[in-house]
Write the structure tokens for this entry.
Amino acid sequence: MALSLPAIMKTTAARLSALYLLLFALCAVLLVFYMTSLSARMLMAQTQDTINDEVLGLARAYQRGGLPVLVRVVENRSRQPGANLYLIADANGQILTGNVQSLEPGVIETEGWTTEPFSYQRFGEGELDRLRGGDQSAPSTGTSGAQAEGEKGHNAIALVLRLPNQMIMLVGRDLGEPERFRAVIKRALMLALGMMGLGGLLIWFFVGHAALKRIDNVSEASRRILGGDLSGRLPVTGAGDEFDRLSESLNTMLARIAMLNEGLKQVSDNIAHDLKTPLTRLRNRAEATLAGKHKTDAYRQALEGTIAESDQLIKTFNAILMISRLEAGYSSETTSPVDLAATVSDVVELYEPVAEEVGVALEASAPDALVVNGNRELIGQALSNIVDNAIKYSTDATEGPKVRLTLARVGNEIKLAVADNGHGIPDDGDRARATERFVRLEKSRSQPGSGLGLSLAKAIMTFHNGRLDLAPANPGLSVVMSFPAREMH
Amino acid sequence: MTAPQPSSEIAYNGSMKILVMEDDREAADYLQKAFAEAGHTAHVAGDGETGFALADAGDYDVMVVDRLMPRRDGLSVIAALRSRGNTTPVLILSALGEVDDRVTGLRAGSDDYLTKPYAFSELLARVEVLNRRASARESETVYRVGDLELDRLSHSVKRAGREITLQPREFRLLEYLMRHAGQVVTRTMLLENVWDYHFDPQTNVIDVHVSRLRGKIEKGFDKPILHTIRGAGYMLKGG
């Protein structure tokens, strides 16, 4: 993929790195200035200290033996190699002795520290320069130092004193070494700054490039998914970074959309398949009644049958809608504490006469109260659907048909089991399919019902963040509703 | 009355004036005709504003209000009427049917709630019960239907002077049937009002409860009193 600069600049990563680079560079520049000025000041102070020491030494020599001793000491020191400068001049500024041949005019006119570094020429250097360049005239007076400005003269600072006999003494120190030191620091810092800049640019380029690439991968995957491949997922590198987290969230969203889509498709399939049959039957019955010549009673009967069939259709339709809505998710506004023990006794009480009528013993064991968060109506509906089924399927029990409800807390879950002792669903696959919409296992086809009871119960359990499990009860089937237990306060 | 009610004669106690707020023309016409056949007078408003104006001006026994209407939705119409002191019983019709819709509707001031699609017999039964509520029997302590007598304070039931022992739930069932004696009561209405659950029971659980109760209040007596209205529900009616 070709990367043009404007394209890079469009990426967030590049913009951020550019911003950081700028701030970084600004800090580095400030650092360079601070460091150099700090070191310059430090070196200057050091130089001044050295000069002060020298002056103190010379002052002691002067006190000891007056001018002659001072001159001797100065001459002595002037001969030693080093950065120290000495100069004694007469009241008019004529250099008498020292190791300075010439210096900038005006330097020795004012007493005290020189305000600015001045340029000078040391003894012997003039000859050296002449030997090298050949054209330099020998400066003879202190005021001729102006020429030195053009040359590669030395810079120095100095303390100028006036001796009691109006003679001038200058003690100074060459700045060459501190200046070199300063230059080294400056160069090092500039180099570091340059390297930092280069590094920043490289990081910027690669980070920007990598980010761009990953975002492009994500957009490409999205385009594929938009193209209709809902099973597609966004790439997750496993790095666990922001991109991965984003992709993971989007993938979860896609999974949910796919699930809803699948549910929708299933609903429409089921509507097509399972509602069409009763509708056709309804229509045929009406048509047949209309075709024949009947007595009023027969018409009435046909119409009553039609109404009964329509009512069943409405029930089925409402159940389908409810399942879809439950699966689409609800606001949690409708939940409140529900005492499952009370629900169990309600449903047992509701179904007890029916059970008795078909010869099924309906039993329940539950604690006094066991509270979950939920919707009382929905839980009651789910439980009554399950109990309804259990009663139907326990009637084929070999001995004493029985339905038993058990409510108990198991670990972090509250389990409400409805077990019958009928033939159950021996096949694992069938058991798993039993909660799908409209699935009516072969044996149950003869029983009345829409085939939505368990699907609705399952949707209700999902709505409650719980589960609906089918397990063999030996004999029979155990349908277990598992609710998450409430936090204890 | 001595014979069981023929199924065609869904009885009503007097004619009602019903206001139907429904924007679907066809559904509204059907309701108007069906209510007329049941002996009631129904006026139709096609949108919320018209409905509000009619309800505010007219003196209706019951209102049937669609939740989703142009210009003004049903809930806001009801809330506005209630705030103006209108206490006419309201039944909401809704295609929404969310779990909390009924709660929302009842909170807004409606008295009952029915989800589309519905059976007209269910709607009629509920509307008639709502109207009766306007002339409440809630305050009566003793209900009498024919020779059947139910004392709400002492929880005793007598028929022709003979004591009948009922289970607590049977008592509540009979109490509800007697409160709405002469009116059709549907199975879902019984499940709602006696058991406090709002769903369509899959099998005939309610029928079995009713037939048990019937056994207790009719066995040994010559006249039937608890009648089955086919395609609709039950009705308690004395001779």
The interface with chain A takes residues 7-8, 97-100, 103, 115, 117-119, 121, 169, 195, 197-205, 208-209, 212, 230-231 of chain B (CB under 8 Å).
